[in-house]
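User: Could you check the structure of this?
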Amino acid sequence: MRVTIARRHFYFHPIEVEQAMEGVVPEPITGQSVRIGRRDYPIMQVGAVITRQDRRDFSVGEVTRAMQALGFTCRAAPSESKGAL
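Assistant: Sure, the predicted structure tokens are below.
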């Protein structure tokens, strides 16, 4: 499937994304995340791995749209503790 990230076109198949992320240790999740296989990864980490671009070159929204188009489950940023004042 063709996706656009940082004004560049990429052709990915979901299996290629899964293979690219194999063996990659997830960074701590502080923002949006994507479920790949049995692991959750920060969306920007996935974008950097699959595009081989610097994270400053693309946005969370671009990678989120691409991952959703490929059928991956994306999650919003974890909310802060609701009991804290």
